[in-house]
Write a structure and sequence with these properties.
Order of helices and strands: EEEEEEEEEEEE
Number of helices: 0
Number of domains: 1
Strand content: over 45%
Low-confidence stretches: 3-13, 130-163
Helix content: under 10%
Shape: globular
Mean pLDDT: 78
Distance between the termini: 27 Å
Structural class: mainly beta
Largest sheet: 7 strands, antiparallel
């Protein structure tokens, strides 16, 4: 299972939510977020090794976003305890309730706190690939670093914040 090193950075030039795959594997990514119409989950972005992709275009409208990613080549996942709906094929799903009853999978996403910035980049890495003593350098300008938490995340509440 890949180890998670999550580095988030701000980018003043663009107003988007981006994800960079800094592993040697192909990665599938799904995102969950709350907008004016409620909760939505979308997937899949297939991101080849050592590239980035824009998941959401435009200025971010929420503070918290949720990510689930799968390593297609070596197995494993980047996940959390914020449960949302997903499925194996391409999807856009409204709502996070009753996933199984509605015919979807119930998947644990990890939380990304953008600190209410207009744009954000998430870096997925496999810590086993990094040289000892050489942490992955975030793209400049760098923002806060978020290490994985051992505390479980809870499902998002109606206002987009963890409960």
């Amino acid at each position: 299972m890949p180890a998670l090193l999550l580095i988030t950075t701000l980018s003043p030039a663009l107003a988007d939510f981006r994800l960079c795959n800094n592993t040697g594997s192909r990665v599938g990514v799904a995102i969950g977020y709350k907008d004016a119409e409620g909760w939505t989950t979308e997937g899949w972005w297939n991101i080849v090794p050592r590239t980035c992709d824009t998941l959401l275009r435009g200025a971010l409208v929420a503070r918290y976003y949720y990510i689930y990613a799968v390593d297609y080549d070596r197995g494993g996942e980047w996940s959390g305890h914020a449960f949302m709906c997903s499925r194996e094929k391409e999807f856009t799903i409204r709502g996070t309730e009753n996933c199984l009853a509605r015919g979807f999978d119930r998947t644990g996403f990890f939380e990304v706190d953008t600190t209410e910035q207009r744009s954000w980049t998430v870096q997925l890495t496999d810590t086993a690939e990094q040289a000892p003593g050489k942490p992955l350098a975030p793209r400049a300008p760098s923002g806060p670093t978020r290490q994985p938490s051992t505390a479980p995340l809870t499902a998002p509440s109606d206002d987009g914040r963890k409960q």
